[in-house]
Amino acid sequence: MTGMVYLIGAGPGDVKLITVKGRECIEKADVIVYDYLADAHLLEWARPDAELIYAGKQCKDHTMHQWEINELLVQKGKEGKIVARLKGGDPLVFGRGGEEAMALGEAGVPFEFVPGVTSPIAAPAYAGIPVTQRAMATSFAVVTGHEDPTKAVSGIHWEGLATAVDTLCFVMGVGNLPTIAEKLMAHGRPANTPVALVRWGTKTVQEVLVSTLEHVVEDVEKAQLKAPAIIVVGDVVNLREKLQWFDNKPLFGKTIVVTRARSQASAFREKLEAQGANVVEAAAIKTSPLELFDEDRRIINNTKQYQCIVFTSGEGVRYFFDALYKEGKDTRALGNSKVAAIGCATARELQKYGIVPDIIPADYKAESAVEALEEELKAGDSVLLIQPKVARDVIPRSLRHHDIDVDILRLYETTQDTSQQEALVNALTAGTVDYITFTSSSTVTNTIQLLGDDALKLLGNTKIACIGPITAATAMSAGLKPAVISDVYTTDGLVNAIVKDI
Fold first, then answer.
1. What are phi and psi of 259, to 5 degrees?
2. Does the keyword Transcription regulation apply (predicted)?
3. Catalytic member of 28, 57, 78, 329
4. Is 64 a catalytic residue?
């Protein structure tokens, strides 16, 4: 049986710039072969059982040679596998996709090209530089800045390129920048022609340097700007002054560590990235379901007996409905019970299951939840409280004090996640982290445990940002000094609080 190899353009860097078809291919692939320039977050869409193979190539550092990659794709295709070959940008714009396709075709392995957003257009766009502009630039060319070193004669037509094309975009050209600038000026391009280098274009670590052909080599050396970068030559570079947008965002240039569970981190990361932040995911906690006993199942099968069901987190909502479905039931099992959600994030999670909460406290503290519940309940009523294995007892203790019966259903536990410990330590040790965020007391305590004896020293070099006073109190009791405490106890509130702190 012969498989299929998809030669996919992974886009220029920003994970959201991959095409819909590209994502679909990743999701169904048996094997994913990915490059250095393909964003690692793309792999989050892979099947859990997919085989992931890194085939990255950097200057003078090749994990796999091209002929080895060709052979690998042929082998996996002949095994009947669906292969997603992820290549930065577009596979046919200096991506050697044509070479890989030739090898597959000669071996009789079916393949398809899945075009991608190419960096010579996208990187300038994210720098506020259009490659064409009416009355200024009616043509552009994409040129390799790194020709095959075995060539006896350059294949670049410098004389024509220098003056016949308005905008020139050089790919992989940082190492050859002196030659590029020299050749263009020698063949008629004015020395004062604007030049921009866009490093890691479209990513939150993007850097932009603007100069002229005459001075660009010197300026790049002073700035110590390294590859990968797109070199843009032409008058359109001057438009950056008016069209700059991406690196104007309030958190651009700020590195922020997210410590919440990986299952929840992606949404928080996207909110921070939308404000321009460079996000380092370093989950300190993870959640997992608890074993259900007969009494737990009895409660799940008799939820209609409760006047109110209280959910304290989005995780609790997901684990509750997972357990409910396993018992062969759905939302109808809740009957006429009122539903309370502690926090708007919990409310949004309930809405995914078709439930609009009856009760949402004014703020997200347990004390406020008790006040809201007491207004809706009376003595003798029964409440079902969905909680993790370890939780504060404010709600059940207060309700019982008012003669309200409370059953607690503990469906999951929060434990330490060590999978990203190295990323956390490396980020803090480098001294480049501007903020570390804590969204619960457990993220504080587990982060400190992960950092060990050097915790306070490492965390002393960055600002501490906490959701609400309870998380902040945990941080302070551990010897930390929160710089940001959000008044709104949600990730949106925390993002806004960090933006205000800038």
1. -105, 0
2. no
3. 57
4. no
